[in-house]
Amino acid sequence: MFEYFDIILWPLLAAFVITGIHVYLGMHVVTRGVIFVDLALAQVAALGMAVGVLFGLGQDGVTLYLLALGFTFFGALLFSYTRSVNDRVPQEAIIGITYVVAAAVMILLFSKSPEGAEHLNHILVGSILFVTPKVVLLTLLLYAIIGLFHWRFREQFLSVSLSENSGTATQVKSKRWDFLFYVTFGFVVTVSVTIAGVLLVFSFLIIPAVAALLFVEGISSRLIFGWIFSLVGSILGMLASLLLDIPTGAAIVVTFGLMLVAAWLFRPKSAG
Length: 272
Hints:
This protein has helices at residues 5-32, 37-54, 62-85, 91-110, 116-125, 133-152, 154-166, 172-196, 198-215, 219-244, 248-265. The chain is an all-alpha fold.
């Protein structure tokens, strides 16, 4: 098994970097009750990538990334704005509509491309196994900056997430922090999608956070539990991918799913 170490070293480090910030953001998402916001923003970013690919920008590169980032920021602005102007429409409904429309448009765009199926598969499951050291280190730097920003203003972000869940976030100040959350969240999602794909990014965000809810209380304890859960799942998923010769992203997602089922079966009785 150790012969695979050189192969999975940088992909595993990439998974660790993604885990570090996604588990934290996942706690906010679960608290807010907008579970599919990551999937929707990831799909919007993927739509931006699809447009870039069709315009000949390839599947990597700064221009393609900036285009995907622009699409994601538009989605972040949409989610922040619509929540504040119409309380009669549930936020989750708007998120779901955004996801399905963005996915449909992406499919239509790729339907006109001879390599559409290949591009679609790349965007959905990513290519984390082939990530380069430069990408990992740059991603670490970017996520560290965002993480420090969230840590510096952790009380404001947590307050908005808790108040949104209780339906009391109506003040202008709360709206500003809400928008900043979605913008930084969208930035993270855009970077992660280019590395790991839509499905794996969603799994990193939600599944460890949900598993943590079953076992521990408190933000710090849930963060630690989520990080351990995600790291173990990433290692097992990558090893399964290499041993069984199956797609890495999909293998990690399935591993996360199986671990969550096991967590639910062996959850403390107090968790219900």
